[in-house]
Amino acid sequence: MDIKLLDKILSETVLVIEQSKGRIFDIAETSRTEYQRIEQQWREVRAQATKCIAQVDATERDYRYRRLRLMDVSRDFKRFSEADIKAAYEDAQKSQVDLVMLREREQYLRVQRDDLERSLRALQDTVKKAEELVSQVGMAMELLKGNIRELSGQLDSMHQRQALGLRVIKAQEEERRRVARDIHDGPAQTLANVMLRAEICEKLLESDVTQVRAELRLLKSVVRTSLQDIRKVIYDLRPMALDDLGLVPTLRRYINDLKERHTMLIDFSVLGLDRRLPSHIEVGGFRIVQESLNNAFKHSCAVKVVVRVEFAEDNLGIFVQDDGQGFVVEEAINRQGDHFGLLSMRERVEVLQGSWQLSSSPGMGTTITVRIPIREEVK
Fold it and tell me: pTM of the entire structure?
């Protein structure tokens, strides 16, 4: 087989897929922008329709009253003059014309509102399909661009190579999807709100300075919230304190943040002399504790979690125990699927050449014990 020709074919394939991914992404972004525009238009039309319905109801009541007035005047010629009868007739006629016009406007607004709702649903479906397609194309690109040949000497079979490659790609895509979702649901939404508030301030600048000050204070609060969301996303990707302060201070800060957001009790303690470790061990230790706590919060329904970090002479020990509902270990590991949880934790420990022990059973909580040898490099 001509390796150069194969590489050329793969490179051209990757290029075509990258271009296609860009076009699909453009379609998704265009659809999302159009969705936001139509959504704003739909809100305005819906508000107009609601207001018009209220006006129709009020005009109907007025029309009924004027008809009754006309009937009373028409029946009693002795009490009312011809001018009174004429005035009552003209009032009733005018109210009837107003009612007909308002009903026509109500019907028009209802039709317009329903059409916009259908357009919103169609655009929402388009955006969803485009985003799914972008993700699928991204996975295909990673599979093509991944240098699988370097792993061939370490794997026993083609099946193992394929399984490992897909696992890595899925893990990357899952992390990217999570980061994209966090940014979309947090900072992106907040920045959209900032733009709206800025436009309001711009419109009020010439007419109501007091209201502008109030809007600016609110805008300041919104920006502060967005900054907190961005810092949280950065922290989840890699806590900067890990490089500056080390494992234990970073874990303390992380656990304190969790305590503020959750009611679960976390008992954290350190055994041995706290000291700085090689970067890959500190990162691995932090991720293991982080994943253990995530599992406890999401799945165990635990009330209390105990976290112990032990600094021995030649290894780092990590002990995490919760009093949650527990599970059958073999079944949980076998059904991991796209959720790597326990499996990714075990693989991280294996990469660090450590030992990993998981103990759990239904109704008896879960215990995770990890030992990582302290070496300058992972061989």
Answer: 0.45
